[in-house]
Every structure is written in structure tokens, then in C-alpha cells.
Amino acid sequence: MSTSVIAALQIGASPAGTRATLDTILGYETAIRDSGASLVVLPEAVLGGYPKGEIFGTRLGYRLPEGRDAYARYAAQAIDVPGPETDELAALSQRTGASFVVGVIERGGSTLYCTALFFDPRDGLVAKHRKLMPTGTERLIWGQGDGSTLPVVDTAAGRAGAAICWENHMPLLRCAMYAKGVQIWCAPTVDERDVWQSSMRHIAHEGRCFVVSACQVQPSPRALGIDVPG
């Protein structure tokens, strides 16, 4: 029986921006190559950032000017797909011999999408998945994906697909992925709660697949002054 090494690179987006985060990812090249990993999964929105705690000046019925400025700064950190950042990630995939699933904030016209990108060491950027339904106030800043970006791609470790954060809780999405023969379920997320582990175990059991989840390293909501239960 052959074995495969699959890695979860759990890092956070740099406060210094997308370029700094990309440099951090590239800095793991030797570790990835030495590990022999055939697939590496990175967190949700690691390139572009997940602005936990930011409200962008919004109140029901109006927006503050400073919120517009904050959103403009956030949007400036998004990436084009394809673009210079995806070229660098494709080159990293080629040099390490590993496939990658990377969570990014994608700029599509005037809309931002929370997206998972798939990289192959031979073919570069091969697919993308846009988050179908942003969760809660994520809908203030991200557009909705659709069923046209639900890829399951071949990797050296097996057939891999991705569901981002809380869309893992969508039964019909899961069924669509199972029908495509997913063997390695990749779950980029920012959900660090213990209950998330239960969701991942359930998907592994339900889908008869291996599950790898990578979570951003971020301050807790309480560290940001946000009072949340649980």
C-alpha cells in the first residue's frame, strides 16, 4: 500500500499585507520539500486577509465614510486570479513537487470573493472554488460563488476538493462533492472552535474521505473586544 504525506500550513495573514504573507508562505519551501508532502492546504483568506472584528463603518441603513476608506484598504490587498501572486504560488508548487490548496481573497471586477485556489506542480493554477455563501456579515464584503466552481482535482495524494469554512455545513454542497468522487476533503477555515473538529470528523465519516483543515492563526474575538458566547 502506498502512502502520501498531506500537510496543513496553519499561519495567519500578515498585518503588513498580502506581499508579506506571500513571503512567509514562500519561506516554508524547504520545509515542504523536505517533508515529502504531496499536498499542502493553507487557511481561508490567508492571502488578502480575514478582517475579524472589522465592521467597515456599517450600521443598518447607512455607512460611515471611514468605513469606505477601510474597505478600500482591504480591497487593495485582494489578488487577481490569475495574477502575479498565483504565478509565484505555481512556481512554489513546481519547486516543491507538491499540490497546493490556498485560501485567498480574489478580486473579480468590483467584487471580492473568498476563494480556494488549486495548484499542480506540473500544470500550475488548475482550478478555483469561490465560497458559495459568505457567512453572516462576511456578506458585507464578499460576493457569492456559484456551482460553476466546485472542482475536484487529481493530485498525487488522490482526488481533492475544497469547501471553505462554514459552507462545510451545507449538505447539498457536500453531496455534490461526494458525487464527484472526492477523496481528500480540504477545509480552509478561520473557525478555531472545538466544535469545528466535530464537523470535520462528521464529514470524514459521512463522505468516506480523508479530511484536512487548515485554520488561520488569529487573535480570539475576545482579544478584539468582541463578546461572543461559547
UniProtKB/TrEMBL annotation:
InterPro entries: C-N_Hydrolase (IPR003010), C-N_Hydrolase_sf (IPR036526), Nitrilase/CN_hydratase_CS (IPR000132), Nitrilases_CHs (IPR044149). Residues 4-230 form the CN hydrolase domain. It comes from the Bacteria. Pfam families: CN_hydrolase. One of its GO terms (molecular function) is nitrilase activity. This is Nitrilase. Belongs to the carbon-nitrogen hydrolase superfamily. Nitrilase family.
